[in-house]
Amino acid sequence: MSVPASQAWAVTRYVLKQKLLRRKQYPLVLMLEPLLRCNLACAGCGKIQYPAHILKHNLSVEKCLAATEECGAPVVSIPGGEPLMYPHIAELVEELVKRKKYIYLCTNAILLKEKLDSGYFTPSKYLTFSVHMDGLREEHDESVCQSGVYDQAVEGIREAVRLGYRVTTNTTVFDSVEPLRVREFFDAMMDLNVEGMMISPGYSYEKAPEQQHFLGREKTIRLFSQILSNKKKGWKFNHSPLFMQFLMGKRDFECTPWGNPLYNLFGWQRPCYLMQEGYAASFKELMEETPWEEYGHASGNPKCQDCMVHSGYEPTAVNATFDSLSGFKDTVIATISGKL
Amino acid sequence: MNEDQDLQNWVPELSEELSLAHVIDLAVDYRGDVTVIKHDGSVAVGYMFNRNANGATPSISLMTPGGVEQPLSIPYADIVNIKFTGRDTAAGKSYAAYQDRKQKEQAPNAGSDQ
Predict the structure, then answer these.
(1) Do residue A278 and residue B95 have CB atoms under 8 angstroms apart?
(2) Strand B43-52 to strand B34-38: parallel, antiparallel, or no bridges (unpaired)?
(3) Is residue B62 part of a domain?
(4) How close does chain A come to B103, measured CA to CA in Å?
(5) In A, which residues are within 8 Å of B50 by CB distance?
(6) What ranges do the domains of chain A cover?
(7) Are A160 and A212 in contact (CB under 8 A)?
(8) Which of A214-228, A267-281, B47-61 shows the lowest mean pLDDT across its residues?
(9) Is position B71 within any domain?
C-alpha cells in the first residue's frame, strides 16, 4: 500500500459512513483550484487559456476553506494553474492540515525547492507533493514544452524527500509513449524514493492546443496492458488496484463524475473535473441539479466515450471495493500480492 | 483553424437562423472577453463563464476585469447582442511554437552556409 494506514483508514471510515447514510452520490476528493495561472504552457493542458484578468485572480483562503467544508471530502487535491504560485499557499495548506484533510498539492515542482528552502511548509502526514512528471527527461520536457523542467522537478523531489515530505508523481500517458520507456520512468521515480505514482490516460480538453495525441479507449487498454503487465514489485502506485485493472481492460467501470468535484473562481464546475459545461453556485446545487445521467460512458455522450481518467474512474474503483465482498477481496489480494 | 479562432472579432448578425441563445452558447465556450450590448444602451465587457438557459429568468454570468469578486448576472431579455471582442486565449499554438523552437535548437547553424 502506498498511502499511510491513517489515510487509508480515514477514507475507509468516510466511505463506510456514506454507505450507512445510504448516500448514493458523494465526493471522495475535492479538486480545489485557487488560481488558474501557471508558469508552464503544456501542450495537453486546457486549464490556463483565459484572459489576463482571470489569470491574475486568486481565490481567498476563506473561500477555499468554505468550499472544503461544503464539500466534506476527506482528501483535497490542489491543482491549478500552478499552486506554488498562489500567494497564500502556505496558509491554505496549514489550515487544511488543521482540519485533518489529506492534501495532494499538484505541482510542476519548478518552484518546489525554492519554497521548501524558504520554509513555506512543514512535513506532515496530511501533506503530499504530487509532482507532475510525464516521463523521463526527453518525454517530460517535450510534454511541458520547455527544456530543463524534468531536471528541476527531480531536484525538487529529492529535496522534498530529503526533508521528510510525502511525495508522489502524477503522470499523464499520451498515445506517443513507448511502454518500455514508461517502465524505465517508473524505475527512475521509485529510485527517487517517492511514496507512490499516479498514472492516467490524457483527456482531450477542447481548449488544449495539442489534440492529436490523446488516447481512444481500445488504445488506452492496449497501452496500459503493455505498461503494467508483469508489474515490478518495487513499483508503488497511488491508486486503487481495481482502477489499474480497469485501465488494463480487466474490469468494466462506469464513470463517477461527482467523485472528484472541482471548485475554482467560477464556482463548482459541471459536470466534472475535465468537462466545463457551466458552474453551480453551491456544492448542493452541483449535486442536486446536474443531469448526471447525461454523462459517463453508458450515457452515450461523445465527450465521455474515450475518457478513462482517474478523476472519474478512481472513485468508481473505490466504491467497488466497498460495494461487495468480492470487490473488497480483490482489492486486498491485489494490494498484498502487488499483482494486477 | 478551429471554431474559436474564427470567433475572435466576430460581431454576430442575429436572425431567424442565428438566435441570441446560440450566440450565448458560443460565447460561454469562448476563452476571451466579450462585449455584451444591452437594450438600455449600456455595454458590459468581461469573460462569460456561465449561463443559465433553463431557469425562470435565463441569464448569463460575466466576470469583468474590475469585478472578479462579484460577477455580473445579465438576463437574456436585457441583451441585444454579444461581440467577441477579446483575444481568444485558446487559439493556442504553444505546441507548434515549441516544436519550431526545438527544431531551431537542434539545428543552430542551419542556414549559416548561405
Answers:
(1) no
(2) antiparallel
(3) yes
(4) 12
(5) 266-267, 278-279
(6) 5-337
(7) no
(8) A214-228
(9) yes
* Residues of the domain holding B77: 3-106
Q: Are the CB atoms for A134 and A140 separated by under 8 Å?
A: yes
The pLDDT tens digits for A165-186 are 999 999 998 877 899 999 999 9
ipTM exceeds 0.90? no
Question: Is residue B11 included in any domain, yes or no?
Answer: yes
User: CB A51 to CB B47 under 8 A?
Assistant: yes
Cell numbers standing for residue A241: 488496484
- CA pseudo-torsion sign B60, B61, B65, B70: positive
Considering only the beta carbons, identify the residue of A145, A146, A266 that sits closest to B50: A266
Q: Which residues of A touch B (CB under 8 A)?
A: 41, 43, 46, 49-51, 53-54, 57, 142, 145-147, 206-210, 265-267, 278-279
The residue ranges of DSSP E strands in chain A, in sequence order, are 29-32, 75-78, 102-107, 127-132, 166-173, 196-201, 262-264, 267-271, 276-280
**B44 within domain boundaries:** yes
For residue A265, the chain B residues in CB contact (below 8 A) are 63, 68
Q: Give how far Cα A57 sits from Cα of A192, A265, A266, Å.
A: 35, 8, 11
We report the CATH number of the domain holding residue B19 as 2.30.30.100
pLDDT value at residue A196: 96
User: CATH homologous superfamily of domain A5-337?
Assistant: Aldolase class I (3.20.20.70)
3-state secondary structure of A281: coil
